[in-house]
């Protein structure tokens, strides 16, 4: 592919082997960078290459060993949501290089504890307090002064087949014999939300058909449900809007936060990150995408 900065929707459809409607959907969600010349949407080749590289990284499980290999190379931002990819792009534009590590919330906090990443992201629900993240940060970063900064709120729920033919509406339904699920990987916020609710109900994962099948992305589990290979999966509302053939049953409003060590509060990298997420430009970009509540973006939740 020749280096071009004025690729059309048709070009991108051919390059990525997806429909034009899917290209427009990716633009609307903010996943695919674009710009306008008059009324025409255009793309740069560098942005498309970065998008493809991000997909490859997201589809590759990242182990603690792999993270440890990148930790000394710079500022590492850890988490799986597309909002973090866009945040890292903003940081690079502000001359603050930010590497990305794509692992779930629980392992993200452990990696921060082990000095393998600079910033962790988390959306971990604690059933004892009905709160997000704070109890986990205290438990998984013992003795480490830390700062939790709010990024966004999202709606978590069930991906079900169009029309919800099996009427899956509550956690109790996972105990039914006629339900097959597809699961997220251990340590992800969605998996913790599921397991905590199953524990409260006295339902064992081993008794649920498909519980052992783990997949590392919201988009893929939604696609499995759309294909009819599973009846239900846990994920965010935003992704449900991108996958045809499924409905979304809202269950829980979750907090998605960033966590870093308090000793890093004055570093140029953290200063740049906070400046970006507190800016009207960054907030406005996500207020139009849908699926993100940006009202308290950038506010400090707590300092330990």
UniProtKB/TrEMBL annotation:
User: Do you know which SUPFAM superfamilies this protein is assigned to?
Assistant: Periplasmic binding protein-like II
Q: Know the name of this protein? A: DNA binding domain protein, excisionase family
Q: A GO molecular function for this record?
A: DNA binding
List the Pfam families: HTH_17 (PF12728), PBP_like (PF12727)
Alphabetical list of PANTHER family matching this protein? BLL2305 PROTEIN (PTHR38431)
**Domain (PBP) ranges:** 91-278
Species per Swiss-Prot/TrEMBL record: Denitrovibrio acetiphilus (strain DSM 12809 / NBRC 114555 / N2460)
Query: Which residues are in the Helix-turn-helix domain?
Result: 7-53
Name the NCBIfam families for this protein: excise
